[in-house]
Write a structure and sequence with these properties.
heterodimer, A: mainly alpha, MetI-like fold, 10 helices, B: alpha/beta, Rossmann fold, 2 domains, six-stranded mixed sheet, 8 helices, 9 strands, about 40% helix
């Protein structure tokens, strides 16, 4: 309980500061809406169904895009992690692609795939791919060679070694990658929606800017913060549950 | 045919020859200790026998299924004691043996524990049970109790000797601990020099039994002293 209270100190202070600034008229209302205005906007967006539509569209894109990016990253990661040859073939190219600031892909993908769902899901998948891939490969490379020898002594096949030793031993890296990948997926979603969209939280942001509605922008930002925080906490909970076996500082209770 | 037979094996890492033209054997039902200082190549010999390394020249044969216990327990952290012992099982018959082996090494109350919750001795006992799942004829042991504290080590040594005798196993144990070699082995091979060769061979037989008799009446310290004076 104490942990939760401690975490609430800064948000509460921010909220109080925000309220004070707007109530005292320090900033213009068209630049920063008051907490009450934002709350009213949230309620009205919720009542006319816009909110559900935007939120639903964004969550669907993130979940599908993340699933695709994650699946690709896992398949390629296991190949590169286990085979030196595959690593030599794939790694230089992937490193070069990774060196491009990731958001630079947005215009190109929009040009190729148009402004439909495909483009946005592809971008989210790209966003999720790299953190998952990088952390998974690192996790595989960090597997203790001594455990592989145990498999060797018992005469396990290559596939069995991968499945029964390498994968579980690399799972901490994979799960960290998935958590970071999910955060990255939200980032790419907003980028895609800001540029070309008729629905979604990114669209809400852009619309708010165009029609000078700071309350609408803040509603979108708060919802993004909430979604991001929820996925992050969810992923952390999964990590804690499935990594109870690890003997590290992070999992000590 | 011998349980383990090694004829003239040599192994070098780069310019450094670890051992040259080394021969040894372990008879059926015999527990042989390979005794020598750290870094003299004992472990490399054992790794060759386990198929984890290859001698550059020479010939060796391990008769039948072998089980190995490493210096570290090398348990799989995400599996509990039961899962780790069952890891090596391939057939339903071998799987059925798991609980019996856990009982044999005295870990029945810790069956559901994860490796991180085990003491060094418990972890090594889990590893020993795992090495027995396939009902091996030969046991290869690489300083298995080196990381366990002295009191527990004595317990484990006794347990190991009892298991080897009860199951009619043949075993080769690598150790740098003179007491351990004397206490456990029917025969001791003393390894030394560069490249390493077998310096001396010590048939224990009666000495071991004296030792055990002394052990039954006195404490461990007395035994260690009497062991040093008798050999």
């Amino acid at each position: 309980m104490r942990r939760i209270w401690l975490g609430l100190i800064i948000p509460a202070a921010l909220l109080a500061g925000w309220w004070a600034i707007t109530a005292l008229g320090v900033v213009k209302t068209y630049q920063l809406a008051s907490p009450a205005q934002v709350a009213r906007e949230l309620v009205s967006l919720a009542q006319d169904g816009t909110l559900a539509g935007d939120l639903g569209a964004s969550i669907t894109r993130v979940v599908i895009g993340f699933a695709i990016g994650c699946a690709l990253a896992c398949s390629l990661g296991i190949l590169v992690g286990l085979s030196r040859t595959a690593e030599r073939i794939v790694e230089p190219t992937l490193q070069a692609i990774r060196a491009v600031p990731s958001l630079a892909w947005v215009p190109l993908i929009l040009l190729w795939l148009g402004i439909g769902e495909d483009a946005k899901i592809t971008l989210v998948a790209i966003g999720a791919f790299f953190p998952v891939y990088v952390n998974f490969v690192a996790g595989i490379h960090n597997v203790d060679r001594k455990l592989i020898e145990v498999a060797e002594v018992f005469g396990l096949s290559q596939v069995e070694r991968a499945w029964r030793i390498v994968l579980p031993a690399a799972s901490p890296g994979l799960l960290v990658g998935m958590r970071v990948g999910f955060t990255q997926a939200w980032l790419f979603l907003v980028a895609a929606e800001l540029l070309a969209s008729t629905k979604g939280l990114g669209y809400l942001l852009m619309q708010g800017e165009q029609i000078t509605r700071p309350d609408e922008i803040l509603v979108a930002i708060l919802l993004l913060a909430l979604c991001g925080k929820l996925t992050e906490s969810g992923m952390r909970a999964i990590e804690r549950r499935s990594l109870r076996w690890t003997d590290t500082l992070g999992t000590a209770s | 045919m011998k349980a383990i037979e090694v004829r003239g094996i040599s192994r070098a890492f780069g310019d450094h020859t670890i051992f040259e033209k080394l021969s040894l054997h372990v008879g059926h039902g015999e527990l042989v200790a390979l005794l020598g200082p750290s870094g003299c190549g004992k472990t490399t010999i054992l790794r060759c026998l386990a198929g984890l390394d290859k001698p550059d020249t020479g010939w060796f044969n391990v008769n039948g299924e072998s089980g190995i216990v490493f210096q570290e327990p090398r348990l799989l952290g995400w599996l509990d004691v039961r899962g780790n012992v069952a890891f090596a099982a391939r057939t339903p018959e071998e799987r059925a043996r798991v609980d019996e082996l856990i009982e044999l090494v005295g870990l029945t109350s810790a069956t559901k524990k994860l490796p991180k919750e085990l003491s060094g001795g418990m972890a090594q006992r889990t590893a020993l049970a795992r090495s027995l799942v396939r009902n091996p004829h030969v046991l290869l042991l690489d300083e298995p109790f080196a990381a366990v504290d002295a009191l527990r080590r004595y317990e484990l040594q006794r347990q190991l000797r009892a298991i080897v005798e009860a199951r009619g196993l043949s075993a080769l144990i690598v150790t740098h601990d003179v007491d351990e070699a004397i206490f456990l082995a029917d025969r001791i091979l003393v390894l030394g020099g560069e490249p390493a060769t077998i310096r001396t061979e010590l048939q224990q037989g009666a000495n071991r039994e004296h030792l055990l008799a002394a052990l039954a009446s006195d404490g461990k310290d007395d035994v260690a002293t009497s062991a040093r004076t008798t050999c």
